[in-house]
Amino acid sequence: MAGCDFGVCTQRRATSAAGKLADLIVLDRDPLADIRNTTAIRYVMKNGRLYEGATLNEVYPRQRALAPFWWWDDAPSGVPGVER
C-alpha cells in the first residue's frame, strides 16, 4: 500500500474491514500459475461499486449499463484512410 506511505490514505482505507472501502479485482484464473491469467478479470470493485470485468456494467449496488464514452462514436477527421 505505497499510497499510505506517502500520507494519502484516509481512515476508511489502508486496511480491510467491514465498513471500509476497497478497490479490487476478482480473477477467473490463478495469476500465480501463469501471469497471463491476470487478464481473466471477472469483476472490478471501485469505490464500493461492483462492475463486470468484460463490460464494466455496474452490478452492485445498482444494476446499470456502462454509459458510452464520447470517443466511442467519434472518428478522427483529416486522417488519411479514415472515412466518416
Shape: extended
Q: In angstroms, what separates the terminal alpha carbons?
A: 46 Å
CA radius of gyration = 18 Å
Amount of helix:
under 10%
Strand order of the largest sheet: 1-2-3-4
| Biggest β-sheet description | 4 strands, antiparallel
Strand content: 15-25%
Average of per-residue pLDDT values: 82
- The SS-based structural class is mainly beta
Low-confidence stretches: none
Give the oligomer, counting copies of the same chain as homo and different chains as hetero: single chain
Instruction: Give a count of the beta strands, DSSP E runs of length 2 or more.
Output: 4
Count of separate DSSP helical elements: 1
Query: Which H/E pattern describes the elements?
Result: HEEEE
What keyword list fits this structure?
mainly beta; 1 helix; extended
Describe the structure.
It is a single chain. This protein has one helix at residues 2-5; strands at 24-27, 41-46, 49-52, 58-60. Strands 1-2-3-4 form a 4-stranded antiparallel β-sheet, with no helix packed on it. The N and C termini lie far apart (46 Å). The mean pLDDT is 82. The chain has 84 residues and is mainly beta. It is built from 1 helix and 4 strands. It has a domain at 18-66.
Write the layout of secondary structure elements.
Blueprint: H1 2-5, E1 24-27, E2 41-46, E3 49-52, E4 58-60
Q: Brief overview, please?
A:
By secondary structure, the protein is mainly beta.
